[in-house]
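Bit of a strange request maybe. I'm writing a small parser for structure token strings and I need a real example to test against, not something I typed by hand. Could someone generate the tokens for this chain?
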Amino acid sequence: MKADLATWLTKQQAAAACGVSTKAIERWAQAGKLEAAFRPQAGTPDVVVYFPEDVAKLAAQRQRTPSTGFLVPGPALAGPNGNGNGTTGRAQVGSKVGAGLILPASIEDLWQVIAAVVQHAVSETSQTSVVHMPAYVPLPEALRVSGLSRSAFRRAVAAGEVTVRGRRYRRTDVEAL
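Reply from user aminoacidic:
Good idea to test on real output. This should exercise your parser:
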């Protein structure tokens, strides 16, 4: 029995339901997380549609995911107007602040909180960068890496110690000199 594709969701509808981009929907379908089918339409190309229960399941999973955000208690207490203007009060170390937040009891604890916040921020925002080192380098780079003079480097090339491709030299051979 053929499924009723009229109730299935288009890519845009599925993306809106899950709160993601249409590209994410395509990736999920490609990974097998969403069942996809083509719904024929009169006079226009077929439209890709997605099984509503799969979309609802993924949307529910995204709603359950805990937030990675964090809140660091600040030292200033808000004044009676709520915006902090005109207040002279300051939170004391170890005192309760605002919505049940407690400042660290000592300066050492405060530094631990700051270090944890910085580490969290760096781990969330930074990406490991891989430095691309070309396999073959031009002569000036080869001379710099090897530390040889131009004539000594030319002798090493003539002796076959360095592989040459055009006017470039293999980096690993140059580094081995």
